[in-house]
Amino acid sequence: LELAKHAHSEVVGRLGASEAEVSELQSKLESKTGEISTLNERLEQRSLELSRAIQRYQELVDERENKQAEELESIMEKQVEKLRRELADSESQRLALTAELEAAATAQSAATAEIADLSQRLKSTANHSQITELLSQCRQQLLQMAEEMAKGSEDNIELADLCNNNLLEAVPVLLQKTQKFVTQTTDCLRKAMERIDALTDDIKSRDTQISELQDQLALTQTNEKPSDQQCNRLEELELQNAALIAEREQFTSENSVLTDYLGKLESECNRLVDDIEQLNAENQKLAEELRVASMQNSMASLDFGAVDGGASMDEVDIHQKHSHEIVALKLQLEDTEKRKNQEIARLQDELASLENIVEDKIFKEEELNDRISSLAGELDKLRSENH
Known about the structure:
Blueprint: H1 2-126, H2 128-151, H3 156-222, H4 228-304, H5 313-386
């Protein structure tokens, strides 16, 4: 019984302690409940404020999007209208350019035909075989003249004059026709340079259009952030614009290379004209030397009747000297003909290369016009989507 009482007293003590703890926990719970209630009130107040702020923000966003859409639509309308005018101008320029290119192609074909005809005439009137045959005849006539000099014949003067006149008539005609061909080739190159200048002006016009398009895109980007679809369209336009810029830079670079190439070609033609003039002067000098040699042969023929016996050693030396001079003249004329043929072949190859380059420029110009048309179509599509 005492143990039970003792246990009961311990239980009572523990119950008292537990009640005290429960009371303390109850007070803490009430305190926390009050705090939670306060926090709930604050949370509700904050939620209400947040809802109002979200609503206000949505109103501002809607207002801003409407305003931005109106501004973007106005900008796009102006841009599309401007591009349409530019496309109309570009179309007229393209038609004019196409007509000019066709005229240039026709002129180039005519020039090529004329060059071929001139080459054929040069081959038929002053080719290498004819010059060689002429020189061979001259040499044979000089040898015959030397033989007749030993016999005291007076016909050697006529033979020397015939050889001299044939040679003097053949070489200047050849040089004159070659110089005429070089002059015609230079005129063709000058026309090509004028065509390159026209293409350069067209490139400047394209640069102006691309710069205006860049300014309009930059103005669009400085406005408020558009929708995702509009951003995608603008990115596509920027990519197309970048491609146009790269293509324009490549076209400008190729045009610069072509201009330098034509400058070199014109310099080569001028140098060829100078060489022909120099060869003409050398030809006149050689003709004069040949005339003097012929006169010496004639004088030797006239004096030969007063000399007893066969030809002297001095006469033999003179004949050998004249023979060597004829051979040297023949070699020089052959070298001149060879250089002339090489220059003609080189100029024809360069003209063919120039024709290919001009055709490539025509294709690139058409591709550039197609890109501009595609860009205008994208702007029209963007405008319709904004509506």
